[in-house]
Design a protein that fits this description.
two-stranded antiparallel ribbon, 270 residues, Rhomboid-like fold, 11 helices, mainly alpha
Length: 270
């Protein structure tokens, strides 16, 4: 048991929270310990009976079966770990905050569906896979059930294609995740390689109280998620190297400091 706890603690904090939340909600339903009815979202039950836990559990109930195993191991576990250890390295609070805002966005964009009972697991997975695919190294590949290898960049569209095969209701449920995932990438990171971050990069940083609560060190304003574009682009084949300075050169930088020795400037005839 101690070994298991140590292994779990090795998982980055936000990834660990998401995985344990999903297992904690889905597994009891699979074992018939609790009814699925008590974890899905229902606006009537939330408002009238104040069953507010449904807002949380509806994002982490995966249903079960091979689809859930694939979503849990690939969409969440692998993608979240890569996000938290690469573009969001030492910025777990920013990742958690942006994930929370994305969940709110998924909830709002799902309102037009007008279904009495809703589950937000699939759109949440799709949003995470979308942002992960855009920030993945150029040419990175992944496998589907260990059988077919495809570029990571195409994974959101493959997931939508599978949902389309399941019927219009399935793809309508998942589509808000793709929309929010795209807004996440465009708003926080920017759509151009080498850019300075998206238009929402400044506001996407976790509030101070949230960062302090998660133990994230405070950084300079320019070190927020928008500044992380350099980290993401480095994984996509772009490496930014600062200009070199002349070794042992005390001359201050300026128009005359070219690095060349032009002599003492003697007059002609001397």
């Amino acid at each position: 048991m101690d070994d298991l706890i140590r292994e779990v603690k090795k998982i980055p904090p936000v990834t660990r929270l998401v995985l344990l939340s999903s297992l904690g909600v889905t597994v009891p339903c699979m074992l018939h310990m609790i009814s699925t009815y008590h974890v899905v979202y229902s606006s009537a039950l939330v408002v009238r009976n104040l069953e507010i836990w449904r807002i949380y559990t509806s994002f982490f109930y995966g249903g079960g079966g091979l689809g859930y195993i694939f979503d849990l191991t690939d969409s969440l576990s692998r993608t979240m770990d890569q996000l938290e250890t690469t573009p969001y390295r030492k910025k777990s609070a920013d990742l958690a905050w942006q994930l929370l805002v994305s969940a709110v966005g998924i909830f709002v964009t799902s309102i037009p569906l007008r279904s009495p009972y809703r589950i937000f697991w699939r759109p949440l997975c799709l949003a995470i896979v979308y942002i992960g695919s855009r920030l993945a190294p150029l040419g990175a590949q992944t496998s589907i059930f260990g059988l077919v290898t495809v570029p990571v960049r195409y994974m959101p569209y493959i997931m939508l294609a599978f949902d389309a095969l399941s019927g219009p209701e399935a793809i309508a449920t998942a589509l808000p995740g793709a929309i929010i995932g795209h807004l996440w990438w465009w708003g926080v990171w920017g759509s151009a390689i080498g850019g300075g971050g998206g238009i929402l990069s400044y506001w996407a940083r976790a509030p101070r109280w949230f960062a302090d609560w998660m133990g994230q060190e405070r950084t300079h304003v320019s070190d927020g998620p928008g500044a992380g574009v350099g980290s993401a682009n480095a994984g996509r084949g772009v490496q930014i190297i600062p200009p070199r300075r002349m070794a042992d050169d005390p001359t201050p930088a300026g128009p005359a400091a070219t690095g060349y020795n032009w002599g003492r400037g003697n007059r002609l005839g001397n």
